[in-house]
Specification:
- The protein has 12 helices and 3 strands.
- By secondary structure, the chain is mainly alpha-helical.
- The protein has 3 domains: about 90 residues, 3-Layer(aba) Sandwich (GIY-YIG endonuclease), CATH 3.40.1440; about 70 residues, no CATH class; about 70 residues, no CATH class.
- The protein has a 3-stranded antiparallel beta sheet with strand order 2-1-3, covered by helices on one side.
- Helix 4 runs antiparallel to helix 9.
- The longest helix has 20 residues.
- The chain is elongated and about 80 Å long.
Length: about 260
């Protein structure tokens, strides 16, 4: 719990982070707790005292107690700095939300927008000041512990493994797209759309289209590994090159990889 010694207002929250990490976030300009962030900017971090009310065995219990303590201390509304009644969870714990975010940040227009923002001198200065303020009150002992934790062999190995696994955003996105539940949902959607289109054709033409689709499915099942490898390689080339339409060529000779000719079937 944070308490403002000037006006007595309080803020209650829960975290799985170490205390200095969580408090550092509250000090920074990018803090998501807007009301508290404004108060820190107005009164200074020195006007706030920090108190650990209790420790919870699980995240679920921590959320429950956060809601109860906010109500008990009256920190939601005019009596404090909490902007919600508490007990919320971050949506980023859900795979579907993570996949949607990865798809958004991978779009060329998003990358161009963020590149312009990051190149802005005012933005750079605000981030610099926020970083300095985040660690301004950190003692040498705390800093040494933080640096030791960040450079621990297991942490370095885990970070390197993560980078190798993802390499680029495209790799991360492909992992999200190929989850079993995502693949099953995509196949169901495709099947529904295909049947809707076939319903508009004559029975003879629809039967012909279905037979063709079955032949292609058989061919794909027999050549799945090689086909997917080439598709993945092409997508990686497209997504890691400079921004351009997804249908543009990569500038290298590309072999047809999606489907064989009718003769080969």
């Amino acid at each position: 719990m944070l308490t403002n010694a000037v006006n007595g207002k309080k803020y209650i929250g829960h975290t799985k982070q170490k205390m200095y990490q969580r408090m550092g976030t509250h000090k920074a300009l990018y803090s998501g707790c807007r009301y508290l962030k404004n108060a820190v900017a107005k009164y200074g971090w020195g006007a706030f005292s920090v108190e650990v009310l209790e420790k919870a065995p699980t995240t679920e219990k921590a959320r429950e107690r956060e809601k109860e303590l906010i109500k008990e201390h009256g920190t939601f509304g005019k009596g404090g700095y909490n902007l919600t009644p508490g007990g919320e969870i971050t949506p980023m714990i859900f795979p579907s939300v993570v996949a949607k975010r990865l798809a958004t940040v991978g779009k060329p227009e998003h990358k161009q927008k963020m590149a312009a923002v990051n190149a802005n001198p005012e933005v750079k200065e605000r981030r610099s000041q926020g970083g300095k303020r985040q660690y301004a009150a950190e003692s040498e002992e705390t800093r040494a512990k933080r640096m030791a934790a960040a450079t621990a062999p297991e942490v370095v190995q885990r970070r390197a493994a993560t980078l190798r696994a993802s390499e680029t955003f495209a790799g991360v996105q492909l992992v999200a797209q190929n989850r079993p539940e995502t693949v099953a949902k995509r196949k169901t959607t495709w099947a529904a759309k295909r049947e809707a289109k076939l319903a508009l054709l004559s029975p003879e033409e629809a039967a012909k289209k279905r037979a063709e689709a079955e032949r292609r499915a058989v061919w794909y099942a027999a050549n799945k590994e090689a086909c997917n490898a080439k598709i993945k390689e092409r997508r990686m080339q497209q997504r890691t090159s400079k921004s351009r339409p997804s249908c543009a060529r990569t500038g290298v000779d590309e072999e047809p990889v999606l489907w064989p000719s009718d003769e080969e079937l």
